[in-house]
Amino acid sequence: MAFLLRRPFEVIEINDNGDVRSTLIGPDIHNQQTFQYTVKSNTWFGSRVWGTGSFSLVGCTVYPGFDFRDFELGKRRALLKAFPQHEELIMNLTLI
Questions:
Q1: Can you give the residue range of the structural domain that contains 88?
Q2: Is residue 1 part of a domain?
Q3: Is residue 4 part of a domain?
Q4: Looking at the domain assignment, is residue 3 inside a domain?
Q5: In this structure, are residues 8 and 33 in contact, taking their beta carbons and an 8 Å threshold?
Q6: CA gap 96, 67 in Å, rounded
Q7: pLDDT tens sequence across 46-77
Q8: Cβ-Cβ contacts under 8 Å for 48 (sequence gap 6 or more)
Q9: Pairing state between β 9-14 and 20-25
């Protein structure tokens, strides 16, 4: 007997205005989940497993072509300074 365990994950975004958006990616489209999602450019985002799971299988595609010179990993201190109202969220999604 084969058993496939599917765990959705949550994509959390903070835009330049400090607005937060949460999107669930997963197989259960009848419970506010979607199969795929696009994060707009110039948006800070992170993700985490939704619910009680310990991992999710995730893929990421970029368009147009990706260049590491355009990539910036969010730094906890800078994000807290820019968005102090989201301290708990930032602390949960960042390491440094």
A1: 9-93
A2: no
A3: no
A4: no
A5: yes
A6: 23
A7: 999 988 777 877 888 887 778 888 888 999 99
A8: 9, 10, 12, 92, 93
A9: antiparallel
